[in-house]
Design a protein that fits this description.
The protein has 576 residues and is α/β, with parallel strands linked by helices. The protein contains 20 helices and 14 strands. Strand 1, helix 3 and strand 2 form a beta-alpha-beta unit.
């Protein structure tokens, strides 16, 4: 017997010729949709994270219009819908707390509606992983469209980059090197167009991951938000998603182990954000790819940083785009045997077919693999008694001479404790100390804040100290830099060894050997553990409570335990 052809999901709403069909079609017609749009053409969701509370995504209404035009041109039926938007700068305590909540919104919004394919509009840091995680759990044809970076910041004749120069200027302000009015002027000079942070921070890293994973169109990573070519890309994605639905290319056919391994290498080659580690693991586990921290260390070894971009280097995303953008980087990796060339992408070609002829126009910005910008830039995964489930460091953002270091701990029990004491001239700390910050992990903060790159004490800044070893269970902004050990797992609030560190304990970091050791005897640690008290949930109710009870540790992507895996694209029962 011939296999029954699977009809489009949307047919179970709009294809009905009964009272339900009347209801499903009729109400959609109230905005002027003619009957012929319900003729069985693919219905494409445009998942929009536009919000004035997410400054990086405020041009997304325009972006959505370009996707819509593309969908219409290809004979699809576009239906735009909003989901929770996560703005990095305004949300408290941290946007990361809500990444998993937003992903649930995306997952349920897609599944519960008559959608055959979806285009995800994402820009600011957490909007990318939350949308990909939600879409992965449903697994229908999907294309990611990033909003693009802002134009380069320009301040008194020099380029300034999002985040990176915020950190350096705030340290200059604290050290008395610049005035408050200089500081205010720089704010307006930095953010002068639509778009997300234009350093190789988390947003640009994740936009690069979208392209490297093959879930975005070629060029997705770097076209500036206000460049007309960003809108062409959105329109092309709108056209292409209609084809993907017809070709039945679901997200799991794109997001394979090969595509994640490609993404890990691309992340190393762009000196990408450490946040990509958590997000890629979370996305992979939603789609059934068992990605682990060790994959990052293994796949990243021998990969060099090819881009001279802030925070590791000097240029900005706009320069990167004009120099050839991510395609030029992917080409270098492929030409040096560091890519799964046959990994499939949403435009119907393999990753290598898309990028094998990509030109590079500026070797000051994109370096050749044989003469890299920085050697060995993969994420290093550390183990030891201080982080039995792992911790990470980004060597390309660290000071080489601190990568092997032994020093005495100066412990901060929380970020509030840190802020209270760091400016105290009597703080017992010197340049060899190891700054330790506790209770900033997934459970502890809650939400795993980007505070791992603790600012240095002013008294050492004034002496010209520019970097120190810092260890925490926190994350670090992708625009920050320094010899910063992050994502210590288990975190302090989950009873990890980090909770037991005391002032004056010796800590040894050896990045080459991938070791992080607390040089305290087992007996002493056992005694301290006996006195440790488990923290209470920060709130007894609502999402915070759900998060506290179910969040996984950083090495597992900090997803909620019950969201790992996919539920699929089944059509829920009628409402009538
Ligand atoms: Fe949105 Fe940096 S604040 S990307």
């Amino acid at each position: 017997m011939a296999k029954k052809k699977r009809e489009l999901r949307s047919a179970q709403w709009f294809g009905r010729q009964d009272i339900y069909g009347f209801i499903y079609r009729g109400w959609v017609k109230n905005r002027g949709v003619p009957q012929d749009q319900f003729d069985g053409r693919p219905v494409i969701g445009i998942c929009n994270t536009w919000s004035e509370l997410t400054p990086c995504n405020t041009h997304f209404r325009t972006l959505a219009e370009h996707v819509r035009n593309g969908v219409l041109e290809a004979g699809g039926f576009p239906m735009e819908f909003p989901v929770m938007s996560l703005g990095e700068t305004l949300l408290r305590p941290t946007a990361m707390l809500y990444r998993n909540l937003a992903s649930m919104d995306v997952e349920e919004s897609i599944r519960a509606n008559p959608l055959d394919g979806v285009v995800l509009l994402m820009g600011c840091d957490k909007t990318t992983p939350s949308l990909l995680m939600g879409a992965a759990s449903v697994d229908i044809p999907t294309i990611g469209v990033s909003g693009g970076p802002m134009l380069s910041g320009k301040y008194r004749g020099t380029d300034i980059g999002s985040g990176t120069n915020v950190w350096s200027m705030s340290e200059d302000l604290r050290a008395g090197k610049i005035t408050l009015s200089d500081f205010h002027e720089a704010e307006s000079c930095m953010n002068r167009s639509h778009g997300h942070c234009m350093t190789m921070g988390t947003a640009s890293t994740m936009a690069s991951m979208v392209e490297a994973l093959g879930v975005g169109m070629p060029g997705n990573a770097a076209i500036p938000a206000v460049d007309a070519r960003r809108y062409v890309l959105a329109r092309t994605a709108g056209r292409r998603i209609v084809e993907l639905v017809k070709e039945k290319v679901t997200l799991s056919k794109i997001l394979t182990r090969k595509s994640f391994e490609n993404a890990i290498r691309v992340n190393a080659a762009i000196g990408g954000s450490t946040n990509a580690v958590i997000h890629l693991i979370a996305i992979a586990r939603r789609i059934g790819v068992d990605l682990s921290l060790d994959d990052f260390d293994r796949m990243g070894r021998g990969v060099h940083c090819l881009v001279n971009l802030m925070p590791s280097g000097k240029f900005l995303m706009e320069d990167f785009y004009y120099a050839g953008g991510l395609p030029a980087v992917i080409r270098e990796l492929g030409a040096n045997g560091l890519l799964h060339k046959d990994a499939r992408t949403v435009n119907g070609k393999s990753l290598w077919e898309n990028n094998k002829s990509a030109p590079c126009w500026n070797r000051d910005v994109i370096f050749p693999f044989k003469k890299p910008f920085k050697k060995n830039s993969g994420i290093a995964v550390l183990r030891g008694n201080l982080c039995p489930d792992g911790a990470i460091i980004k060597p390309s953002a660290a000071t080489p001479k601190l990568m092997k270091h032994k020093g005495r701990a100066v412990v901060f029990e929380s970020i509030e404790d840190f802020h209270k004491r760091i400016d105290d001239p009597k703080l017992a700390i010197d340049k060899n100390s190891v700054m330790v910050l506790k209770n900033c992990g997934p459970k502890g903060y809650p939400g795993m804040a980007e505070v791992g790159n603790m600012p240095l004490p002013p008294k050492l800044l004034k002496k010209g100290v520019t970097d120190m070893v810092r260890v925490s269970d926190a994350r670090m902004s992708g625009t920050a830099y320094g010899t910063v050990v992050l994502h210590v797992a288990p975190e302090a609030a989950a009873g990890g060894a980090l909770a037991l560190v005391e002032n004056g304990d010796e800590i040894e970091l050896d990045v080459a050997k991938r070791r992080l050791q607390l040089l305290v005897s087992e007996d002493e640690l056992a005694q301290r553990r006996g006195k440790w008290k488990e923290p209470k949930p920060p709130l007894e109710r609502g999402y915070w409570r759900l998060y506290f009870d179910h969040v996984l540790q950083a090495n597992e992507g900090a997803d909620l335990d019950f969201l790992v895996g996919k539920s699929g694209d089944f059509v829920p029962r009628d409402n009538h």
